[in-house]
Amino acid sequence: MEMRDRLLLAAERQFAEHGVLDATLSDIRAAADASVGALYHHFPDKSDLYRQVWVAALTDYQQHFWNAVADSPDARAGVESGVRAHLRWVHEYQYRATVLMGSRPPGVRESERNVEFLTAVRRWWRTHAGYGAVRDLELDLVYALWLGAAQEYSRQWLGGNIRTAPTDVAPELAAAAWATLRADGTE
């Protein structure tokens, strides 16, 4: 594994376990078995390292989510697959999910990659809304209704407040998302 990747993985774990403020570059460097020079060669400071970890986690999440939604044969399958993918990803990548639950670094929302993802999801949604399968809503509201319950469940589970794994409740949360977002008269 390349040094940059080792540093990113070590930082991901440190940020998830200790938070951004309490994670130290010294601990990250030691966990990655990297020299001071290697750390600063790849990341000029802690905020840049955090941004890179956050962006990597977001990119990985978006790829998993989009693969599940884009491959679905219809709106219902897409909505439910999106919820299941979200919960599966949180379960499988707990450190990354914890990092994403933290504060978003500046500039990420406007990044080209994020804009492309949101455009693809918006296009997918508008297509299905156009033929009456789902409610015609703005994407911010769609997100809250589609993944809000799954996101809150994930947050509580990652925080240790809920014991049942997200994947165990995925069918119910997926069905609830569909019931909320389907257009009137759609089954």
Tell me what you see in this structure.
- It is a single chain.
- With 187 residues, the chain is an all-alpha fold.
- The chain has 9 helices and no strands.
- Helix 4 packs parallel to helix 7 and helix 5 (75-92) crosses helix 6 (94-101).
- The protein is elongated.
Which descriptors would you attach to this protein?
single chain, 187 residues, mainly alpha, 9 helices
Alpha-carbon distance between the two ends: 48 Å
Structural class: mainly alpha
- What's the order of the H and E elements? HHHHHHHHH
Count of β-strands:
0
Largest sheet: none
Question: Low-confidence parts lasting 5 or more residues at pLDDT below 50?
Answer: none
How would you describe the shape? elongated
Mean pLDDT: 96
Percentage beta strand: under 5%
Q: Could you provide a short overview of the structure?
A:
With 187 residues, the protein is an all-alpha fold. The protein is built from nine helices and no strands. It has helices spanning 3-22, 25-32, 36-42, 46-70, 75-92, 94-101, 112-130, 139-158, 166-181.
Outline the fold blueprint.
Layout: H1 3-22, H2 25-32, H3 36-42, H4 46-70, H5 75-92, H6 94-101, H7 112-130, H8 139-158, H9 166-181
Helix pairs in contact: 1-2, 1-4, 1-6, 4-5, 4-6, 4-7, 5-6, 5-8, 5-9, 8-9
